[in-house]
Structures are given as C-alpha cells and as structure tokens.
C-alpha cells in the first residue's frame, strides 16, 4: 500500500520501550478478540449451549446458599471484642425482655379520667390476648411476661409472723402492732418487712420470701392502685403521683413520673399536668430459644426474639391498630410499637419497591430496543435485546451461585442486579456501536463471521478494560472489616466477571443468530414472517449528529474548551467545600417510612422522652470481688457522676456498701471482707428490699437461695441508660468516658468490659467513613494500575484517573448538598460509583488511542463520534432504570437513586465532555504510531486484521464508505 507522505503523521515511529509495548499489547488484545469472535460466530448454538450449561453448573453453588439474618454478623465489624462479649452475655445471662409500648398524648393533659379510662380498656384488652404456643397450648400475657416476685401480700406475711400480729425487736424487746403499721404507712412496712435489718430470724424471713408469687413486671401508671379504679378526678391522680413510690401490683419501688412527658409542676414541685403517658408491657426472652433462622427476617434487621413472643407481638399490633381507630379523638392520640416493629417494617419497605426496580428494568429493555433497532420490522431488535437482558440475568445467577459456595448472602445484594444491568447494557451498546462501524464499510466484502470477529477486535479491549477495573474496584472493597460490605463486594466482583464472560460469548452468539435473521429478512417480532422489504440504505443517527454538532461546534472550540475547564474548576471547588462538610451519621429510623405507625411512635417518643435513650452496662467477669470491691465501688460512683450523659444508673456496689455499713457497721472502702463474709452479705443484700432488684444483675454458678451464702459469680453488671445522641460526635465520647473509667482502675481487659446492644450501630458508625475513604483510595490505586497494564499509556491513564477522581470528589460534594451522609448504604453506593465512573472515561480514553489523526480536535471529535454515543446511551439506560426509585419509601433505594443520578451526570460530564477536551489539547500518541507494520496516513482510517490474524490492513473509511444525500443520517 502506498504511503501518502503529505498527510503522514509526525509521530516518531520508533518510540520508547513502553510505547512499543503499548502497541503490541493493544495488537495482541485485538488478535485475541478477533479469534474469539470468529469462533463464537462460527459456532453460535454451541456457545449458547455451553453458556447455559455453565449457568446450571454455577447454580449448584446455591446448594450451599446461606442468608445471614443476624444483624450483629451483618453490620458490626468482625475484628472487635463486641461479638465475644455478646456471646458471653447471652451464654451467662440466658434471659432478657422485649417491650411492647403504648403512648397516649393529649394536647391538654393526660392526667384525666378520660385518658385513664382508655388506658384501662387498652390494658384489659392486651391482658386478654391469646396465642397458640410454639409447643401447643394457649398462651396469654401472664404466661409470656417478664416476672418478678410480688411483695404485696400483707395478710400472708402477718400469718407467717404469728397469729397475734405482733413482732418483737431483738434490740429493745418492745412490740409494735403490725396491723397499725400497715394502716399508717404501708410503703414503710413493705420496706422493713423485706429487709434483714428488720430484726427477724433468717428462717422467718426466708419463709416469707419462699412464699412469694411471681407476677408481671410492667410499667403502667395504673399500678399506683392495687385494684382497678374508676371515676378518678384530676386531683386524685396528681396526688397519687406525688405520694406513691411503690408499685401496688408488684410491691417494688417505682417512680411513676418517668412515664410522663412534658410534665408541668407547681411552685412546690408537685405534678399538675402532663402531655404524654407511656405504658410498657415487658415480655420474657429465653435466650436459649432464640433462633434467628426462624425468627429473623430477610432484611437482617430483626432483633433477638422467640416464636411465642413474635406471635404475641403480631396479635398486639393488630389489636392496637383497632384500638387506635376506636379511641382516638381530636385531643387524644394513641401511638404504639412492638419489639418486632422495626424488623417488620424495614423488611417490608426494602422489598415492597422491588416492583419499581422490575418496572425500571422493563423500561430499560424498551429503551435498548429503541437504541439498537432501525425503523423496519426486519431490524427490530426485540429478540436481541431480550437475550441481552437474559445475559445479565444469567451472569447474576452464576455469580451469586459461585459466591454462595463460600460466602453468605445479605439483603443488600439484591441491588447487585441493578449495577450489573447497567454495566452489562453499557457493554452491549459498545459491541453494537463497533458492529455498526464495521458494517458501514459497504464495499468491503466480509462474511458475517468476519464482521463479528472484527467487531470483537474493535470492542473487546474497551470492554475488558472497564470490566477488569470494575472487578478490581470490588475486590479491593472486599478487604473491609464490615461483613456485609465484604460479602457484597465479593458477590459483585464475581457477578461482573460473569457478565463480562457472557457478554463476549453468549451475547455475541445471539447477535450472530439475529444477524442471520436480518439477512434472511425475517420479522424481528415474529421470525416466521418473511418480508420482501429492502435493507434501508439510511438510518437516523440522532446521537451521532448531536455529538458531532455539540463537540465539533461548541465543546472543542477554543471558547468551548475554556468554558469546560472553568466549569470543572468551579464544580471541583464547590464539591471540595461541600465534601469537607459531609458528616458521618446514620439513624436506623431512616429505614422506616414516615407514614408508618412505628415512625410516628418513635418521633413522638423522642420528643416527649429525650432522656430515654440506649441501655448499656459495665459487665464484670472472673473478678476477685473481695480484693477488688473498693475499686468496683469507686467505679460505680464515677459512673453515677456521669449525669450529663447517663440516667437510671443501677449501681449495686453503692447500695451494697450502704447495706453493709448500716447493718454491720463495716466500711467496705477500708475493710476487706473474707470470702465467707462476702458471700453471706451478698446473699442477704440480694434478698433485701433495696437489693432484691439487683438479682437481675448477677448470675451465679449455683442457684441463689435465701438464707444460704451466694455461690461463685459468673457475671455481674452495673447498668445504665445513655441519653439519646444525634451523631457520633456525642456517642463516641460518651462510650469512651465509661471505658476510660474502667481502664483507669486497672482491671484486666477480659475481667471488665462495657457493652450495650446499641454499640452494634455505634461501632459501625465509628469506622464507616475511614472504611469508605480506604476502600475508594485502594480502588483508585488498583484501577490506575489496571488501566496502565491494559492501556499501557501512562499519559492517558493519568487523564482517566484524573477524571475518575474528579467525578468522585463531585459525587461526594453533591451527596452532602443533597442531604446524604456517610453510612453503610452510601458506602455501597460509592463503591459502585467507582466502577461506573471508570467505564465512562476508559471507553473514551481507549478509543482515542486507536485513532490516528494529527489534529487533536478532529481526533477527539472522531473519538466521541465513534464511542461517545454508546457511552451516553449506557448512562441514559442507567438513569432511566433508577428514575422510579425517586418515589421509593425505602431509604436504600432513595439513596441509590440520588447517588446514581449524581454518578451518571458527573461521570458522563468528566468522561464525555472534559476528557475529550484534555485529550485534544495534549494529544497522546495512538497505538499505531509505534507499530512496525504500517504508518497510518488518513484521518478516517480503520485498522483491520487479515483473516490469518497476522497482517494489518488499512481501510480508508472516507474512500470506502458510500456517500448518501440523506440529511442527518449515517449510511
């Protein structure tokens, strides 16, 4: 072939070693895909059969499928002691409780007979709920509630003391009439009768204790009375609140004002009104009966529970929905929640909008048909599009099946189909753009197999680069310490790998078959119908014409380039400013739609009870209590002093110190008890009225028996409640303050630890931002290395890397502008965004290197005309698929919608607008500039391989492509 020296490029044909390597790698990749395309095109049905068989083989991995439902194993870092401490507590405490709540709010005052009458009816209805027990029989609230000893049976106490109702004090031998004591001050009588300091023999005292019955421990303001009352006046109620400190049903101490919200007091400090009234019904949990495989939900958001509790809560929610409709008035509003409410609603919300995802996929399919088809029945690409979507479904099934052999599945993985759909469609558009380019060379005689081979030669490298970089981005993310994100990234990497494999095999085989249908002029909808129509000589190319005008007349002009660069500077500056303001924050209530009963309850509860926050505690194990008792008391006092962050501190060491001091005149801060004294005094303390409530804070090797010394302690605790915190700047210091108190007393690490269920969220929130930055940074490094190896052009790789980096900065900044924060959901979205941003820029960068043209502007324009349409169409398909998620109630889907809208906008802007401008300015050398086989000499030359894949032909497109007089078309 003759060289046209006048148009010869000015590139140095020798080049350096890296440049020559770049050329040879590009050529080798082209040869590989040429041969692959040729083999697939010659054996399409065999390839399809092999692909379907591979799907079946990989699907066997589902035999090992396991969906993790334990929220701790999903969302909590697995390299912390929280898991070990949780197992230890569950093993030793063996029981807990779940709370069902009713909240009544009145604009005027809840301390009225009208409100109390409604509460009595609600309580009565809840007490009468019946369920079928897991192991048979009918269960009611009294069978399922958390029970405590009842100490209000005065008559039986007096009988146990003697028929004369007299009791002699050992100190002064005086007598006191117990009946008079009961009548004058019953609360004081109860306190004295159940305290060893009231001088009775141990045998008498323990005989009383042994006869105590168990009753339900609820928090109900009606328990100020020991019998159901009616026709109460406001004065009756407020007076009772000010004078009652004992629960008349259980006999235990209780401050009933904690059940009131927005309390108003008079000058003397007495309660005169309140705006809200809270009632809690506590259900018993036997930890040995918890099985999250049965009671957990698909979203992984269900807390610890049992089958019986779940069944009761289901009936409770149905009942309260009915009572809410019946009892609410304009002034009185009723809100309610069960222990299962969060899990139920978050699961329902996560999956209720799957229909929108499916419909979005349907819209994307229609969009693909429109993009891939020409305006004729023969070239209607409905079947090709359908099999293209099937290709992505096959990849999802194969990838998930392969990953299931060694990794658990999580509910977040359902979004994987969405991301591989976007990536797979993008690959399909690239292949079809290359095929159209090849078939546009009208007077070059090529068989269908040759066309397919040359299509893969042209598109294979671009698809490989984007797929490989996506896979690396996900694999890097799998090194996270968050179990759910690690699993997601592994599943994602394998799904993308399978998408890539099936696109270059299965889809190409289907394309070959569909092209045979087109050649045979068969209907694209009903293939058995043949048409006599001629193949259209022209087809509308609106996208090509748009890009030709937009880039050629605007973007790639001198003023256009200046405008683009200035806009990038402005966007980046704004984004950096916003990125510096972004916060790490996550509220579990974001998963709950605002129109649900549970969301309304939580919002009202937060408003009226701001100090009812998160229960936690300090847990002690394997301590030498006699040696460390003074330290334990100091620790308890320090914890009690944290009144700015804690409430409801249950510090048994302080009460025990007072007990021993008052009864035995021993100061535990200066005197070390013997082991026998310690066990004897502790047993008496835990059966006293002041110490009895602390039995729940201890677990012993043997059962605690009244009148006998306590056995060795397995675990003990000091519990408290954190105030409600808005973000980690509050809860991290709050948790650390308690941990520092523990550390300052030099307990060994395994002996004393701080634990709370809420820590599961706090630990994740504490490290999620550093995990995001680390994963994205490693992904960027991995992507840069990958593109460098594949493209072997440092200059272009640097430009691609810059575009991806600027895209991510813009995504982060506009995330903050749109109200998003850094959390587990946005971390997944950002991980996915790396792959999408790479795709847009890598396609442009790689295509630019395959075009030989000395003029930078023309070369950039040719690049955009050749691949820009496919990139924009891929971005458009992604936007179309997610549009319906904008109205979703699910936080996950709403967040993905916002992130992916931002990703597509800025990914396309930096990849299709900014990158061509940079490439046109700096003009990196094309691959062909370093080849020894030829020297390119025409702005529209197309490099093709001979059939033997050894020699290179140069086809002058402007000479070989027939011209057409059609306006705004490409023939």
Automatic annotation (TrEMBL):
GO terms for cellular component: membrane. PROSITE patterns: SSD. Pfam families: Sterol-sensing. Coiled coil: none annotated. Keywords: Membrane, Transmembrane, Transmembrane helix. The chain crosses the membrane at residues 21-41, 47-66, 357-377, 389-409, 416-435, 455-476, 488-513, 562-581, 772-792, 798-820, 867-887, 899-922. Belongs to the patched family. This is SSD domain-containing protein. Residues 353-513 form the SSD domain.
């Amino acid at each position: 072939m003759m060289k046209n020296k006048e148009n010869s490029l000015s590139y140095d044909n020798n080049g350096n070693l890296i440049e020559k390597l770049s050329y040879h790698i590009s050529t080798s990749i082209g040869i590989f895909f040429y041969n692959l395309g040729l083999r697939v095109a010659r054996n399409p049905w065999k390839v399809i059969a092999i692909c379907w068989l591979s799907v079946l083989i990989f699907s066997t991995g589902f035999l090992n499928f396991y969906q993790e439902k334990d929220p701790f194993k999903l969302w909590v870092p697995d390299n912390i002691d929280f898991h070990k401490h949780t197992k230890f507590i569950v093993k030793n405490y063996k029981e807990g409780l779940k709370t069902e709540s009713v909240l009544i709010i009145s604009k005027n005052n809840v301390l009225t007979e009208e409100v109390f009458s409604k509460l009595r009816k609600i309580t009565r209805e809840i007490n009468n709920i019946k369920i079928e027990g897991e192991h048979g029989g009918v269960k009611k609230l009294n069978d399922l509630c958390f029970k405590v000893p009842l100490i209000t049976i005065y008559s039986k106490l007096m009988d146990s003391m003697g028929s004369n109702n007299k009791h002699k004090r050992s100190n002064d031998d005086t007598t006191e009439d117990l009946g008079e004591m009961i009548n004058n001050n019953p609360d004081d009588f109860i306190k004295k009768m159940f305290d060893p300091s009231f001088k009775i023999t141990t045998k008498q005292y323990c005989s009383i204790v042994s006869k105590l019955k168990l009753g339900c421990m609820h928090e109900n303001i009606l328990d100020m009375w020991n019998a159901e009352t009616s026709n109460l006046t406001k004065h009756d109620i407020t007076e009772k609140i000010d004078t009652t400190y004992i629960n008349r049903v259980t006999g235990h101490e209780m401050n009933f004002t904690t059940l009131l919200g927005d309390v108003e007091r008079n000058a003397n400090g007495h309660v005169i009104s309140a705006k809200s009234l809270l009632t809690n019904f506590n259900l018993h949990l036997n930890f040995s009966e918890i099985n999250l495989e049965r009671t957990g939900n698909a979203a992984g958001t269900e807390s610890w529970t049992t089958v019986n509790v779940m069944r009761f809560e289901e009936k409770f929610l149905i009942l309260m929905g009915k009572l809410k409709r019946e009892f609410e008035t304009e002034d009185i509003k009723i809100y309610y929640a069960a222990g299962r409410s969060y899990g139920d609603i978050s699961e329902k919300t996560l999956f209720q909008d799957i229909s929108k995802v499916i419909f979005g996929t349907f819209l994307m399919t229609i969009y693909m048909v429109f993009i891939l088809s020409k305006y004729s029945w023969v070239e209607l690409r409905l079947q090709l599009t359908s099999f293209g979507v099937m290709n992505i479904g096959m990849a999802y099934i194969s990838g998930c099946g392969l990953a299931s052999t060694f990794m658990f599945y999580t509910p977040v993985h359902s979004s994987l189909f969405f991301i591989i759909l976007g990536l797979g469609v993008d690959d399909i558009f690239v292949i079809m753009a290359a095929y159209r380019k090849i078939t546009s060379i009208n007077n070059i005689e090529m068989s269908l197999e040759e066309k397919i081979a040359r299509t893969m030669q042209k598109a294979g490298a671009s698809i490989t680069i984007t797929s490989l970089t996506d896979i690396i981005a996900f694999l890097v993310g799998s090194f996270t310490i968050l179990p759910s994100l690690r699993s997601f990234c592994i599943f994602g990497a394998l799904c993308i790998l399978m998408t890539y494999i099936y696109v270059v095999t299965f889809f190409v085989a289907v394309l070959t078959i569909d092209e045979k249908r087109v050649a045979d002029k068969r209907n694209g909808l009903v293939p058995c119908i043949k048409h006599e129509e001629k193949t259209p000589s022209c087809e509308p190319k609106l996208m090509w014409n748009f890009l030709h005008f937009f880039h050629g007349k605007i973007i790639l002009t001198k003023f256009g380039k200046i405008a683009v660069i200035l806009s990038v500077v402005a966007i980046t500056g704004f984004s950096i400013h916003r990125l510096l303001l972004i916060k790490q924050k996550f509220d579990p209530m974001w998963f709950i739609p605002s129109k649900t009963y549970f969301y309304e309850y939580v919002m009202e509860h937060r408003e009226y009870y701001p100090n009812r926050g998160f229960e936690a505690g300090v847990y002690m194990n394997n301590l030498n209590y006699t040696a460390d008792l003074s330290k334990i008391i100091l620790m308890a006092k320090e914890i009690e002093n944290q009144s700015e962050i804690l409430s409801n501190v249950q510090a048994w060491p302080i009460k025990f110190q007072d007990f021993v001091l008052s009864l035995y005149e021993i100061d535990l801060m200066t005197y070390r008890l013997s082991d026998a004294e310690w066990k004897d005094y502790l047993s008496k303390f835990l059966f006293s009225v002041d110490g009895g409530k602390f039995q729940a804070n201890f677990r012993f090797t043997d059962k605690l028996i009244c009148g006998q010394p306590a056995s060795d302690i397995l675990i003990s605790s000091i519990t408290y409640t954190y105030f409600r915190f808005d973000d980690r700047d509050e809860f991290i210091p709050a948790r650390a303050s308690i941990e520092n108190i523990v550390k300052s007393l030099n307990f060994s690490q395994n002996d004393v630890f701080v634990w709370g269920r809420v820590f599961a969220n706090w630990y994740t929130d504490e490290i999620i931002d550093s995990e995001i930055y680390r994963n994205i940074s490693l992904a960027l490094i991995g992507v840069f290395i990958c593109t460098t190896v594949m493209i072997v052009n440092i200059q272009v790789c640097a430009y691609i890397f810059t575009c991806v980096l600027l895209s991510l900065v813009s995504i982060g900044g506009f995330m903050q502008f749109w109200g998003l924060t850094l959390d587990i959901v946005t971390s997944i979205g950002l991980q996915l965004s790396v792959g999408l941003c790479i795709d847009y820029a890598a396609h442009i960068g790689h295509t630019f290197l395959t075009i030989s043209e000395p003029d930078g502007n023309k070369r950039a324009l040719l690049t955009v005309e050749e691949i820009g349409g496919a990139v924009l169409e891929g971005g458009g398909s992604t936007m179309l698929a997610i549009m319906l998620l904008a109205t979703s109630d699910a936080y996950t889907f709403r967040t993905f919608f916002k992130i992916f809208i931002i990703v597509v906008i800025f990914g396309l802007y930096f990849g299709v607008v900014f990158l061509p401008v940079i490439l046109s300015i700096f003009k990196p050398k094309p691959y062909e500039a370093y080849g020894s086989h030829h020297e390119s000499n025409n702005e529209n030359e197309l490099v093709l391989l001979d059939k033997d894949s050894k020699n290179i032909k140069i086809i002058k497109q402007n000479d070989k492509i027939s011209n057409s007089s059609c306006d705004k078309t490409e023939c």
